[in-house]
Task: inverse folding
């Protein structure tokens, strides 16, 4: 298991969990019921934590979160080097490997 996200705002964590599970990655929550016992604890210790169950899914989960929070640029971009149009998902030109200048 690997921790992928934690925040004091539980709604944000649930939101991230939805994003990750929509990518067919199994997750589990820790500290889900800790907030009511927060009394003497350091606040950070009661933050809701989102974990991926399988370590191998970690990179996929992070990528899913990144994708969800990226501004939605649906237009293809045109490579400044070779003028090739590239899909927005590509960070490098598929033809000449030039980095997307954004
Ligand atoms: Zn190019």
Result:
């Amino acid at each position: 298991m690997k921790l992928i996200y934690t925040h004091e705002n539980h709604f944000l964590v649930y939101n991230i969990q939805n994003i990750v599970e929509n990518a067919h990655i199994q997750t589990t929550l820790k500290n889900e019921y800790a907030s009511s016992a927060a009394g003497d604890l350091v606040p950070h210790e009661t933050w809701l934590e989102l974990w991926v169950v399988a370590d191998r899914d970690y990179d996929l989960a992070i990528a899913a979160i990144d994708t969800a929070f990226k501004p939605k640029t649906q237009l293809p971009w045109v490579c400044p080097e070779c003028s090739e149009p590239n899909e927005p998902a590509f960070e490098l030109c598929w033809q000449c490997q030039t980095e997307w200048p954004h």
